[in-house]
Predict the structure.
Amino acid sequence: MEYWNSACECMPREELTRLQEERLKETVKRVYHNVPHYRKKMQAIGLEPGDIQSLEDLKKLPFTTKQDLRDTYPYGMFAVPLSEIVRIHASSGTTGKPTVVGYTRRDIDTWAEVTARTLACAGGNKNSVVQIAYGYGLFTGGLGVHYGAERIGASVIPISGGNTKRQIQIMKDFGSTILACTPSYALYMAEEMEAMGISKDELKMKAGIFGAEPWSEQMREEIEKRMGILAIDIYGLSEVIGPGVASECKFKCGLHVFEDHFIPEIIDPNTGESLPPGSVGELVFTTITKEGLPLIRYRTRDISALDYNVCECGRTCVRMKKVMGRTDDMLIIRGVNVFPSQIESVLLEIGDALPHYQLIVRRENNLDTLEVLVEVNQELFSDEIRKLESVERKIKNSIESVLGLSAKITLVEPKTIERSEGKAKRVVDLRKI
Ligand code: DLL
């Protein structure tokens, strides 16, 4: 069995608990003294760093949410001065303002360590040729996996996303052995490959590390069959570190959470109560080694469950079940996080649109597409077609500049979109994954 760091990945539970407690105490002390936002929240419930001595005490700490990061935008939750931050990434949020995350030099080192483990989980080593087709930029996917791939000594192809024909040509010519991208993009590549008349036997591909969006077992089978590879699910979120929070091993029975860095919990999303192992609920993470942006009990909104049984691979770290869904309305379309409210504000700014709209998400040829149905006033409809086209274009451009996502805009007459007596059904997700 190949591990990147067997001492940490296979640490006996008692030893791991001791290590986690030590690091937790240290983290709580640090955020209390360095981050006013945390200090205020703890003081409000009469909690002092000394009250946290064991993992049991974790429950006493208040949760952190995306709202906390928004309230302190952009750098208010950082626990070190900006002079210690060497990298900034960001992901989109509901208000259009991104969630900003910062890394110290040691955080970058930790990140490389955990993504190196992820690659080793997929059988990666210094002989691997890793093609990174996650986006590079503010998104954490590209650079996150990049540092891990260099750490294991692999040859890295930092191709980033897009330009599918070129991806496949390079995959073939450069002899890539591991592909890193979203699962939907992997499937799209498989299709394009067939269309180009390139057979999987002409490739050296052995495995793929796919994540950043939910995907099903059927999708895995499809990718594995069409590409002739082992497809591994990897999980992470920018706030916690990016990719490298958890990864499946070749046994594909849950994702190992790298617990010497991140403590997971499952809570009831309605009551906030901590749930026992095995229960399905919302995943919550506490980071215990991060310096730039330590997070205490961060609510991910992702639904999963934890399994503490030791895996066949020998890793002792807990396994989280494949993410089953989210507790909020965030959509992930082609790897981009989209909140319906972001589109709503774009529409309302345009003026000609009525506040009745619906987002229709489809998966066509394995690629997610977004259609926005928008009601516009009757006058516009009776007006000349050119005027309608210009409104359509305005909305399309505006969505593209806010979200970085192209959408098909369909303008419809007033009262076309179904009304609801309760919550409006803003999203019709037709993807079968
Ligand atoms: O998506 C980090 C990442 C990059 C993970 C590359 C894996 C690979 P964010 O953009 O902040 O970060 O989005 C985080 O994406 O809360 C989940 O809802 C979803 N997500 C990430 N990985 C998975 C997965 C990156 N394997 C949000 N399965 C998370 C299901 C996933 N959902």
Summary: The pocket of DLL is lined by residues 91, 134, 140-141, 211-214, 233-238, 242-243, 300, 302, 323, 326, 332, 337 (CB under 6 Å). The first strand starts at residue 85 and ends at 91. The chain is about 30% helix and 25% strand. The first helix runs from residue 6 to 9.
